[in-house]
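Appendix B. Raw example, untouched.
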Amino acid sequence: MNLSRSLPAWRVALFVFVVSAITWLGATNIRAIISLVLLKPGTLEFEAYFAPEAEREMFRLISTTSVIIIFSYICALISSIVFLSTTPLKLKEHGWLMMSALLFYLFVPVELFTMYIEGKMIYLEFFTTAENEVFRELLLSRIGALAGTPFIAQLCYYTIIALAIFQPLERPPTSST
């Protein structure tokens, strides 16, 4: 195979990043919808009309979605590092890329902390026979984690999409002598 015709690593990393980010953000929205169905609107109180079996199935769906979220987030994180380290784009000339990277990496600790809580839920779902009350506590701790910072992170991730589309803060290339 001719190496000059192969795809550059940054293009492959960008493709993997885009696919995994779409999967990750989509699954995050699905998990949020499932979680909010369990709660009374505007509160952190659980609806009383769910049968225990139905509630257990909702927790199973949340756990399954969390597996997808964790896997796709890790793929997105690794591919973004590869992309930024191999891309010919200079962050000084492409302010939108710099802002996107800052917004993405700023919330890595938040995502890791919430993944820890999700990991507990996944473990309890697939490897134990925990009661619904344990899942309720974990779900409430996940929703209230870090005083709403995960929600702010979600808004920042959608801002990254807008930055990538409109690409503000472009500078002309610097001439090198």
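End of appendix B.
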